[in-house]
């Protein structure tokens, strides 16, 4: 648990004011926790991170960048013993939020284009200018994006994405390809500062100017990685023609600081695009599949589109012999398992209630809307039609099974109680204008009781409310939508 008392104490000691408001900021993919704290006249962002070495790296890099006049947040106070520190409050607006608010099809507004160019102009200052006197021994978890770092990312992709997404591969051949890829990438010049997580969510916009955050994973590496990271930023979904413009803008900014061979830069660029993509897939798999944070899964279709474009346009297949990796990536592109994450964004006016029946022999269905919450009801305590020969070959959509469960007092009492709970939430969601709610009914086989209960709830809600009901029987493979 974050040390709330320590966070408040460090603020009061620094500011000389009592805490008047203390509110958590939305969580990201890391274990760091951020809070906005305000007193009588001062306000800050307070951070808690249980990783001491990462905190040391962040504090050191922040001071180094400030010394070089780069736009990073001021650090007001640090208590490494309790793993807390205070940062300048840069507001809530990010490059990504501005992009999202102004997005119109495949066109970017002049404001967004100008902001991207400002950000891109600053990137070489981090990478080249500050690199000369930077103490890389302070970087964490490694001083350099070397072979070991790359293999960590590649195995992250293998174990948390390929395996969890059920993509087939030959493990030894894939390992051989990983070695070949890292050998190729390390032929590029790798003596620059590599920001690591250079994306639109890590660029704050204050008074029209960019400020940069979340560089604590930075280390020595190649120039190509960070600009690839910005261009591949999944949900930013920058149209390809703008990516080409921005890459040219980046190369022009670099050339003002250091002379580089453009042909040589581009020779390795697609390789760094690839390893960044694989790292992102690993992160989406870990955070989405493993930790159950569905909003990370919603980034997968964008990453697949980026991968498909890379494989279709790049010469990387011919440049490096990575046959098994290419085969796995082709399977990613055409995977049926991953198609389910292709969620179409829409401006829905009504509340949508997602109702699923499932088997406890498998995992509980995930909320792909990113909304979270909802209910999971265990139907295994009510009478099981599957124990009787006359019902075994039927399921909860069949009349004979429904008649049996309709006649069971325990089943009807269970339904009534779950309906009462769901009704309260549906009424609340409608009143607040919230758009998605998920309800799951589970039983042993996902065939009789859970199907029956999910179906009866769908009928109940459709009759009572002006909402959209989406019913999915995960073991039967059929879907129903009613309005």
Task: Provide a compact summary of the structure.
Helices cover 47% and strands 14% of the residues. The chain has helices at 4-15, 52-67, 95-102, 110-129, 147-162, 171-185, 224-232, 240-255, 262-290, 294-297, 300-313, 316-319, 323-333, 336-339, 399-406, 409-432, 449-464, and strands at 21-24, 33-38, 43-48, 75-79, 84-87, 192-194, 203-206, 209-212, 219-221, 352-359, 375-378, 436-443, 468-473, 478-482. Helix 5 packs antiparallel against helix 6 (171-185).
Which short descriptors sum up this protein?
483 residues, alpha+beta, Phosphorylase Kinase, domain 1, Aminoglycoside 3'-phosphotransferase, Chain: A, domain 2, five-stranded antiparallel beta sheet, five-stranded mixed beta sheet, globular
Strand content: 5-15%
Low-confidence stretches: none
Largest sheet: 5 strands, antiparallel
For the biggest β-sheet, the strand order reads: 1-2-3-5-4
Pairing-aware structural class of the strands and helices? alpha+beta
Cα gyration radius (Å)? 26 Å
Could you give me the name of the CATH homologous superfamily of the largest domain?
Aminoglycoside phosphotransferase (APH), C-terminal lobe
Q: Helical region count?
A: 17
Count all strands and give the number: 14
């Amino acid at each position: 648990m974050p040390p709330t008392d320590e966070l408040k104490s460090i603020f009061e000691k620094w500011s000389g004011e009592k805490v008047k408001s203390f509110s958590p900021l939305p969580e990201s993919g890391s274990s760091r926790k951020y809070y906005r704290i305000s007193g009588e006249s001062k306000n800050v962002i307070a951070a808690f991170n249980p990783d001491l070495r990462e905190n040391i790296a962040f504090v050191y890099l922040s001071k180094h960048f400030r010394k070089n006049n780069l736009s990073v947040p001021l650090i007001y106070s640090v208590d490494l013993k309790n793993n807390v520190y205070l940062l300048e409050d840069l507001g809530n607006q990010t490059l990504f939020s501005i992009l999202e608010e102004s997005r119109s099809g495949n066109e970017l507004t002049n404001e967004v284009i100008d902001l991207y160019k400002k950000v891109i102009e600053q990137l070489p200052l981090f990478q080249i200018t500050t690199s000369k006197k930077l103490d890389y021994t302070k970087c964490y978890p490694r001083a350099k994006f070397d072979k070991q770092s790359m293999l960590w990312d590649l195995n992250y992709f293998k174990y948390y994405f390929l395996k969890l997404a059920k993509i087939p591969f030959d493990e030894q051949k894939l390992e051989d390809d990983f070695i070949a890829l890292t050998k190729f990438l390390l032929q590029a010049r790798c003596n620059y500062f590599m920001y690591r997580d250079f994306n639109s969510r890590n660029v704050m916009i204050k008074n029209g100017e960019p400020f940069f955050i979340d560089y604590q994973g930075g280390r020595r590496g190649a120039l190509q990685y960070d600009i690839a990271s910005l261009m591949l930023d999944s949900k930013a979904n920058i149209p390809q023609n703008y990516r080409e413009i921005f890459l040219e803008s980046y190369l022009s900014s670099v050339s003002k600081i250091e002379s580089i061979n453009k042909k040589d830069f581009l020779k390795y660029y697609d390789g760094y695009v690839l390893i960044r993509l694989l790292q992102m897939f690993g992160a989406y798999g870990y955070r989405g599949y493993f930790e159950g944070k569905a909003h990370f899964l919603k980034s997968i279709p964008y990453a697949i589109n980026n991968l498909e474009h890379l494989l279709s346009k790049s010469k990387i297949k011919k440049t490096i012999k990575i046959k098994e990796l290419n085969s796995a990536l082709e399977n990613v592109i055409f995977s049926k398992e991953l198609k389910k994450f292709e969620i179409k964004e829409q401006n829905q006016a009504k509340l949508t209630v997602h109702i699923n029946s499932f088997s406890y022999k498998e995992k509980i269905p995930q909320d792909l809307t990113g909304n979270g919450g909802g209910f999971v009801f265990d139907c295994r305590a009510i009478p099981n039609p599957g124990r009787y020969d006359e019902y075994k070959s039927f399921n909860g959509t069949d009349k004979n099974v429904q008649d049996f469960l309709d006649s069971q007092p325990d089943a009807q009492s269970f339904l009534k109680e779950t309906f009462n709970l769901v009704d309260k939430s549906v009424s609340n969601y409608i009143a607040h204008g919230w758009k998605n709610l998920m309800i799951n009914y589970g039983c042993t086989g996902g065939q009789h009781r859970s199907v029956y209960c999910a179906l009866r709830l769908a009928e109940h809600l459709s009759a009572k409310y002006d909402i959209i009901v989406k019913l999915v029987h995960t073991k039967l493979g059929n879907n129903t939508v009613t309005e």
